[in-house]
Design goal:
Number of helices: 8
Shape: globular
Largest sheet: 5 strands, mixed
Radius of gyration: 18 Å
CATH class: Alpha Beta
Strand content: 5-15%
CATH superfamily: Reverse transcriptase/Diguanylate cyclase domain
CATH topology: Alpha-Beta Plaits
Mean pLDDT: 89
Number of domains: 1
Distance between the termini: 24 Å
Number of strands: 5
Structural class: alpha+beta
């Protein structure tokens, strides 16, 4: 993340960023609000640490259950990983995301507050659209056609992930640490066949391939629009 004292300043009006905004769906109906907010603060700290190389302005809780952060646009492939981290951390409460790409009109800050610009306007438009359409996520600013493709794929992936059971999610997370199914089966005290069954029921192979495709689509969308004139 950028330090407030960093002398190597960017020309902020020339560099694209990706803003991620999210909130908790139906948060006013949550009974254990204190516990949920503690989970939220913990998730924010975890993401800021795990994705420090991609984050330019750290994620911060802005209004109770609203969170936002700013990424380097050229680290767009990290977007899905960040979103997954937040979704998993706040289970079973649902989240709603808005992702925008564009420039800043103000100075870059160490944490994602006190800034303005096209990137924030697009993220706000995106989350409002997601709220009105009752979808998990919305992207805006990646190009008219690419926005449609990205939104369709991202919503499909998140709907799949949100339907995973805790057992399926735990297996997937261990698999992503490069543990084999044999090792995972021993850890859970079940057969390898049982682990394979959980992964199959989760549609893990298809989710994995879809997530990789989404990362490439985001990356290619950014590459095609790196000229400053595209971010006005």
């Amino acid at each position: 993340m950028v330090s407030a004292n960093n002398k190597d300043r960017y020309h902020y009006d020339m560099n694209p960023f990706i803003a991620i905004k999210f909130d908790i769906v139906n948060s006013r109906k949550i009974k254990n609000r204190f516990q949920v907010q503690e989970k939220l603060f913990s998730a924010v700290a975890s993401v800021n640490s795990a994705f420090a190389d991609a984050i330019r302005s750290g994620f911060v809780v802005t209004h109770g259950d609203e969170v936002q952060g700013l990424l380097d646009a050229q680290k767009s492939k990290e977007v899905i990983g960040i979103i997954e981290r937040f979704i998993d951390a706040l289970r079973p409460d649902g989240l709603r995301f808005g992702v925008g790409v564009g420039t800043l009109a103000t100075r870059l800050q160490p944490y994602a507050i006190g800034m303005d610009g096209k990137v924030w306007h697009r993220a706000k438009t995106a989350i409002e659209f997601a709220r009105n359409k009752h979808t998990p996520i919305q992207f805006d600013g990646f190009g008219e056609t690419n926005d449609r493709l990205i939104n369709a794929l991202a919503n499909m992936l998140l709907l799949i992930r949100l339907r995973w059971t805790r057992e399926q999610l735990d297996v997937v997370k261990l698999l992503e640490t490069n543990k084999t199914q044999v090792v995972i089966a021993k850890q859970f005290g079940v057969s390898e066949a049982a682990i394979s069954k959980r992964l199959s029921a989760a549609g893990w192979r298809y989710y994995r391939d879809g997530r990789a495709a989404l990362g490439l689509l985001l990356e290619e969308s950014i590459k095609k629009q790196l000229l400053p004139s595209e971010w006005d």
